[in-house]
Amino acid sequence: MFRQAKWREPLIFELSVEGRVGHIPPRVDEEIKESVGDVFQSFPKELLRENINLPELSEVDVARHFIRLSEMNYGVDSGPYPLGSCTMKYNPKVNEDLASLDNVAWLHPYQDESTIQGALKLLYLVEKWLAEITGMHRVTLQPSAGAHGEYVGCLIIRAYHKFKGEVNRDEIIVPDSAHGTNPASAAMAGFRVVVIPSAEDGCIDLEALKAAVSSRTAGLMLTNPNTLGIFEEHILEIADIIHDAGGLLYYDGANLNGIMGKVRPGDMGFDIVHINVHKTFSTPHGGGGPGAGPVGVVDFLEKFLPIPTVEFDGKRYYLDYNRPYSIGKVRSFYGNFAVLVKTAAYILSMGSRGLREAAELSVLNTNYFIKKISNVKGLSLPFSHNKPRKHECVLSASKLFKDTGVRALDVAKMLLDYGLHAPTMYFPLIVKEALMIEFTDTESKENIDRYVDVLREIVRDAYENPDKVKSAPVNTAVGRLDDVKASHPRTMCLSWRMYRKRLLECSVGEG
Q1: Mode of pairing for the β-strands spanning 272-274 and 138-140
Q2: Is 342 within 8 Å of 351 (Cβ atoms)?
Q3: Peptide bond into 308 cis (omega under 30)
Q4: How far, rounded to the nearest angstrom, does the alpha carbon of residue 483 sit from its chain's CA centroid?
Q5: pLDDT at residue number 75
Q6: What span, in angstroms and rounded, lies between the C-alpha atoms of 116 and 48?
């Protein structure tokens, strides 16, 4: 355990010392100075600043400050990042190197097609590879993220039914274990969301599904394995129920890592698939981005794909905007190109065998973790029914809460004191006191063992000294935050100006 932090990292403005210099700009030629001066003379005076108010520090102070901040951050390069349903796997550095090449990084979206044939070929090939992996006919690389892909998929569903003259189909069905973005995306596309319950085994309740479908059914949004990490073994029957009702089956690709190379969504009966390449194909998540959420469709939905599509006439690659039934543009230019370069690098370096082994290892890691944690008092695995999990599992700390008053939130906070990242909490909503954990294919047995050992110690502390767990974390730069104040516009501080104003208010309030 580390010592409790009694300090906070100062802001760079607070480190400023008047007169301290970190960089001396080169001498400016007099002729340049005069010409620049003439330019400034033409600017309205109210737009010119007398002082830019930068902090004054030496180079070493600046370097140390930002190195300290980077050490306080946590990412997949720091250690296990077991956020359930996020598939936070290690990002190979060769992918970053390739995306940083000049002929990738310096491409301009307005270049003539004749000058970007290599880039278009790469996009064309990535589309073909993703179509093969998912069992789809065509893929658009346009969407910027998974949720954006869901929205695009819902727009395609709407366009398909409109094309058929069935505008009354205004309902999208989602299971109660669905990702929250599923109903949100459907609602944004203009659909009414119908939620159906899970059965006792954690899978879709088939009778509830049969009762929910009607002439208004546009489609069903589903991920398989589902959010509990359970494979929907009746998926072919589910597909028949939806198709017989005239609807389409949409695949949320967030959990593709558990079946990649083993079974394809297209072979299960799905009509539309989105792929989170920032999950399954190891491109970084970033801070809510960069990402990409390509969408694949079966043959009869190809005409509705967004523009432009990348085509090849045997001699050249080109962007096709002449698609009269397309849902239109969903973003600027060709998608997040650098992210798709990393996707290509990952697929090429892994090959078909490597992609399949990644899925196998993710399933192995999850079930190994479940076995190791199975005898920890206070934690349980809901919806067991002797079903193995795929890429992730959802534990419940409800008994721990009942016995000790320690909640899943407290367990997650105390993990931080051991230098470990917390899992996803309180999701899916059908599991009380949920801890959703996903150890990806890039995690070692030793890392999983350490995580289990720490969970055991936290649970032991919960039964012996619950207040200790409830007060965590104590070894981080700041203690437990007030969740309400942290998100309230009156108290959040997103800039130096807001922070300075808040400090003044606090000092005045304290007299």
Answers
A1: unpaired
A2: no
A3: yes
A4: 22
A5: 86
A6: 41
Count of Cβ atoms closer than 10 Å to residue 176 Cβ: 15
Amino acid at 151: Y
Q: Could you give the 3-state DSSP secondary structure of residue 354?
A: helix
Q: What is the pLDDT of residue 286?
A: 63
Phi, psi (degrees; rounded to nearest 5) at 289: 165, 170
pLDDT of amino acid 54: 87
Residue 192 to residue 248: CA distance in whole angstroms: 15
Q: 415: part of which helix (H) or strand (E)? A: helix 408-417
C-alpha dist (Å) from residue 271 to 222, 227, 240, 275, 293 = 11, 20, 12, 13, 16
Parallel, antiparallel or unpaired: strands 309-312 and 138-140: unpaired
The answer to whether residue 150 scores a pLDDT higher than 80 is yes
Q: Retrieve residue 379's tokens.
A: 């934690």
Closest CA to 277 of 216, 225, 343, 231: 343
Q: Which residues contact 199 (CB under 8 A, 6 or more apart)?
A: 205, 206
Q: Are strands 217-222 and 171-175 parallel, antiparallel or unpaired?
A: parallel
Q: What is the dihedral of CA 98, 333, 336, 311, to 10 degrees?
A: -70
Q: Is residue 499 pLDDT above 70, yes or no? A: no
Residue type, 503: L
CA dist., res. 343 & res. 98, Å (int): 11
- Identify the pLDDT of residue 133: 97
Q: Does an H or E element contain 405, and which? A: none
Q: Is 71 or 226 the better-scoring residue by pLDDT?
A: 226
Asked if residues 305 and 294 have their Cβ atoms less than 8 Å apart, the reply is no
For the purposes of burial, counting CB atoms within 10 Å of the CB of 188, is it exposed (0-12), middle (13-18) or buried (19 or more)?
middle
Residue 266's closest CA among 241, 292, 236? 236
Query: What is the b/e burial string over 481-495, where b = at least 16 CB atoms within 10 angstroms of the residue's CB?
Result: eeeeeeeeeeeeeee
Mean pLDDT across the chain: 91
pLDDT tens column, 469-487:
999 999 888 888 877 777 7
Give which of 320, 308, 275 is closest to 148, Cα–Cα: 275
Specify the residue for token string 């093969």: 132
Q: Cα 276–280–281 angle (5° rounding)?
A: 95
Position 3 scores a pLDDT of: 39
β partners of residue 425:
435
Which domains can be identified in the chain, with CATH numbers? 1-73 (no CATH), 116-349 (3.40.640.10)
Query: How many residues in total does the chain contain?
Result: 511
What sign for the dihedral angle of Cα 96, 99, 103, 105?
negative
Backbone angles phi, psi at 424, to 5 degrees: -65, 140
Q: Identify the pLDDT of residue 28.
A: 74
C-alpha–C-alpha distance, residues 441 and 365, integer Å: 7
Residue in 441, 123, 96 with CA at minimum distance from that of residue 261: 441
